[in-house]
Write a structure and sequence with these properties.
The protein has 184 residues and is an alpha+beta fold. The protein contains 6 helices and 5 strands; from the N terminus they run H-H-E-E-H-E-E-E-H-H-H. Strand 4 and strand 5 form a beta hairpin.
């Protein structure tokens, strides 16, 4: 059986299709538990940590993946940091198109498919990132969150087995909301 790092995008997209589910009340608790574990293992490196993504927005349909933005301090030893994160079950995914320390880690992915709760850990230096702004805006504006949910359902129908196209097709909506939120 191939390891995840040896699979093509098409193989990964077949193994891990876009799944959407109604909002689950336990997503907040799962985030809190994961945050506590991250603080235990890499707390000295953490500048700020936040629950982002659709699972952080009450009532919003979402991929059942907890997205976490972990901002690290400038003096973090990134190689040691990667080893610590991997030691708690995360898979490091190299991001060649993004400047360090833009790191991505995933948990709950196996060569057999999803196993347990899935997490995406986005690691960056402290900054003014769009994801928390978008998430917060959706939390404050349920009608916009509903429209975003409808968009995701439509895109899932078209791109269930193409994560890149699914993500790219949401970009215009997300960008417009972030621009609107930044003006306020």
């Amino acid at each position: 059986m191939k390891e995840l790092n040896d699979m093509s995008d098409e193989e990964l997209w077949t193994l891990f299709p876009i799944l959407l589910t109604e909002h689950q009340e336990n997503w907040k608790d799962l985030y809190i538990q994961e945050e506590e574990q991250l603080r235990t293992f890499v707390g000295e490196s953490i500048f700020r940590i936040r629950h982002i993504g659709s699972t952080a927005v009450k009532g919003l349909i979402a991929k059942p993946t907890i997205d976490i933005l972990l901002e690290i301090k400038e003096d973090t030893d990134t190689e040691a940091f990667i080893r610590k994160i991997e030691s708690i079950g995360y898979i490091y995914t190299y991001q060649p198109g993004k400047l360090a320390p833009h790191m991505m880690f995933m948990k709950g992915y196996t060569p057999q498919g999803f196993k347990g709760q899935a997490y995406h850990l986005h690691v960056r230096y402290a900054g003014d990132w769009d994801e928390p702004i978008f998430c917060h805006y959706l939390q404050l504006h349920p009608e916009v969150a509903r429209k975003y949910g409808e968009l995701k359902v439509e895109l899932k129908k078209r791109y269930e087995h193409d994560r890149d196209a699914y993500t790219e097709s949401k970009t215009e909506f997300i960008t417009s909301i972030v621009q609107l939120a930044r003006k306020r």
